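Hey team,

Filing this mostly as a record. A colleague (T.K.) asked me to run one chain through the structure pipeline before their review meeting, and I want the input and output archived in the tracker in case anyone asks later how it was produced. No errors, nothing strange. Just documentation.

Input sequence:
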Amino acid sequence: MAIIEMKVPVIGESVTEVTLSKWLKADGVYVNLDDPICEFESDKATLEFPAEAAGKLIHVAAEGSDLQIGMLVAKIDTAAAKESPVPKAAAAAAPVATEQPAAKSAETAPASSGGSYAEGHPSPAAAKILKENAVAPSEVAGTGRDGRITKEDAAKAVEAKQTPTTPPPAKPVAETPKPTPVGNFSRTEERKKMSRMRRTIAKRLVSAKNETAMLTTFNEVDMTEVMALRKKYNEKFEAKYGIKLGFMSLFAKACAKALLQMPDVNASIDGEEIIYHNYVDISIAISTPNGLVVPPVHNVESLSFAEIEHKIKELSGKARSGTLTLEEMSGGTFTITNGGIFGSLMSTPILNEPQSAILGMHAIKERPVAIDGRIEIRPMMYLALSYDHRVIDGSTSVTFLVKVKELLEDPTGMLLDL
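Output structure:
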């Protein structure tokens, strides 16, 4: 019997441990070379682990186990003959083989010896994405071999579903749910292990609070001109570039201009040295079902508004479908987080180490403000800049935030690079 041991591979320079989040192949089944057998959840992303040989799969680690790099995950018996087992329930219901024609319909044919799938059958990773987002495989057009639904097909289907074209039908009055009875005195509890991403987020947030001299400074920005700009040009912008002109690209561009003028805010500490970056990689905070991720948009200072919008849309789609790669999660010199989409009026964002600053956007609210001696109602947004006081002085942080405010309140001047 020839046994191949499958161990946790080296995933990335900073990854030392992973969690076996899910077995994709059952214990004892025959697998082909490169078939994905399980999923690993690292600090940054979910990764498929392919079989290193063809043969009978033998599970060694259990789902939910935390595994160090190099630890044994599974074994493959390469001497085992390939079988095509039929589920017991199906075997009991099936008629005698001699009473049926040898040929089977294409609809019910099992996977071929080459490991292909019937048309419309999702890969394990695609099936996971579709299940988590309640998308039926029958609704997805597969582009893989023999019509197989790939991971990318599933991600696109989920993204398309998140933008419905027609409003849902109104529920009839008879379906109105009854109010939950008050006073049932329920005292049930549920204990659930934190996901690796949630544990990583928790550790990094505590580290940022304990290991940095974090302060927050506030200001407010009048969004009148930005909103007027979007209203005037959004239709033409979308017609030309195929995407809407959002607030995030305007904020990212304003921050990039201010960061190049004030390199301290774009710097980071490495031991006893400060690294000054001559480029601007802005990490965009994206909320997902598994937690907050912050993939960076690289070289924002050199991108157009349309390029920034397309990149943010791409990263957001991948983040919510769980298909971000380690490379797409790495880097970043500054972070922007938008709590305003959830209704936050003001907050103090926590640093995304090793970065030295993070900008918090908030909800736009109409408020009375004094304009040239008159009281006017303007759409206002509070801005919060949290920063590491070890790198950034108070005067620097305040000046940076004022520059961002001025750029946003005169977006035409920003576009003209004035």
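Quick notes for T.K.: The first strand starts at residue 3 and ends at 7. The longest helix spans residues 224-241.
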